[in-house]
Amino acid sequence: MTTDCHNCGRTVTDDFDLCHDCMATLVRNLESVPGLVSDILITRSRQDRMSSNLARGKSAETALPIRLDQYDQRPTQRPFDALTNELVTWARDLDALICGELDAALDSRGLRDMVHRHRHSRRPDPASLSQDGALDAELAAIWLSLYAHDLRRHPAVAELFDGIEDAIARCRKAIDRLPELSYKGPCPHVGYDEERQPFTCSADLYVERGEDYVSCPRCWTHHRVRDLERAMLHKVNDQLFTITELLPLLDELGEHVAKSTLYAWANDPKRKKLNPCGWRQTDGTISTYWIRRSDPALYRLGDVRELVRKLGDAS
């Protein structure tokens, strides 16, 4: 007996409501939930920032130094709550049908490790993630993805498919409508553990363009964006790069220099203004002396920026 797929309309020869392709799509979306949750946790951080321009007064868009999620005013909160409810409800329902051990699985170390691996596959830098641990939505989504065979045989799989897909789409829409965040380095706040030993928070900080303050999503310390940018520039100024690597960096910093000019500063005997600070070896290590002809010369970014500034002042 055949039937039509509830989602795409293809003919399904084994009489189930979803074809194999649509079932695979659902599984992929379930596996994407940890990455989606990490995006929500990161974009939430901008809702806790302050504006330093107090003369403007308060407006509907004024950022306040309070936890707005306590009052359900975050644009991602309602979609995230709906996603959690959808996933947990269907996980409980499937568990009852297959007589599984959902509660034991949700408390297991293995499932939580799977959640974090899926988070990292979406956003490779683990430091950018919240330290809250695995949330119910993530655990339920990954658990459901492990039972694709049973999901397809669920008597209400069409309703399950629509509910989960719609909840995921609403969360993505809530994130996509928010302005893009730019990275401002790790949180420099120094705290103390239970043994009074100091440690640095180091959670990655993201901020909207034009914002003066940002709140750390881990320790909730407020930072002036200008101070964070100054610390980042000071650190990157001491790093060594090849001429090819310097070009996009200078563009990002708003200090465009022509490629021919950089090569002239480094290689032209009459115009040589840059001296290499090291050479990169074939194994990636950096030496302070030249070994092979093929080893690219490395130049300190701060030296190049200082040269750009001096020439700009002279003109």
What does this structure look like?
The protein has helices spanning 20-31, 33-44, 77-98, 102-106, 109-122, 136-145, 148-152, 157-176, 225-237, 243-252, 259-267, 301-314; strands at residues 3-4, 11-12, 181-186, 190-192, 198-200, 204-208, 213-215, 222-224, 240-241, 278-280, 286-287, 297-300. The protein is α+β, with helices and mostly antiparallel strands. The strands form 5 sheets. Strands 9-12-10-11 form a 4-stranded antiparallel β-sheet. A hairpin with a 5-residue loop joins strand 4 and strand 5 (198-200). Helix 3 (77-98) crosses helix 6 and helix 3 packs antiparallel against helix 8 (157-176). The chain is elongated.
Keywords:
elongated, 46% helix, 315 residues, alpha+beta, four-stranded antiparallel sheet
Poorly predicted spans? 47-73, 122-131
Number of strands: 12
| Beta-strand percentage range | 5-15%
Order of helices and strands: EEHHHHHHHHEEEEEEHEHHEEEH
- Rg over C-alpha atoms, rounded to the nearest angstrom: 26 Å
Between the first and last Cα atoms, what is the distance in angstroms? 82 Å
Whole-number average pLDDT? 78
Task: Please outline the major beta sheet.
Answer: 4 strands, antiparallel
Q: How are the strands of the biggest sheet laid out side by side?
A: 9-12-10-11
Principal-axes geometry comes out as: elongated
Query: Fraction of residues in helices?
Result: 40-55%
Computed structural class = alpha+beta
Please work out how many helical segments DSSP would assign. 12
